[in-house]
Amino acid sequence: MLFVKFLLVWWYNYNKKHHMVLVIRFLDKVILKKSAKYEK
Questions:
Q1: Residues of the domain holding 33
Q2: Which sign does the torsion angle of CA 20, 18, 21, 34 carry?
Q3: Nearest 5°: CA angle at 12, between 8 and 18?
Q4: Which of 34, 9, 4 is nearest to 19 (CA)?
Q5: How far apart are CA 12 and CA 36, in angstroms?
Q6: 9 and 15 Cβ atoms separated by less than 8 Å
Q7: DSSP class of residue 15?
Q8: In the prediction, which pLDDT does 25 show?
Q9: Integer Cα distance of 5 and 28 in angstroms
Q10: pLDDT, tens digit, 9 for 90 and up, residues 1-40
């Protein structure tokens, strides 16, 4: 379990910029879907 956590931390640090872009895009999609539902 500790080893898995270490790998996740390393992977996150290694891909931090790319990871943040993916998270922001995902959040944008979720927000757009929610706003579209509220508009209807």
A1: 2-39
A2: negative
A3: 145
A4: 9
A5: 31
A6: no
A7: T
A8: 92
A9: 27
A10: 788 899 888 887 887 877 778 888 999 999 888 888 877 6
Look at the pTM and tell me if it is higher than 0.70.
no
User: What pLDDT, on the 0 to 100 scale, is given for residue 8?
Assistant: 86
Tokens found for residue 9:
């931390």
Among 16, 24, 20, CA closest to 8: 16
Total domains in the fold of the chain: 1
Query: Rounded to whole angstroms, what are the CA distances from 4 to 9, 28, 30, 40?
Result: 9, 29, 28, 43
Quickly list H helices, the chain. 2-14, 16-39
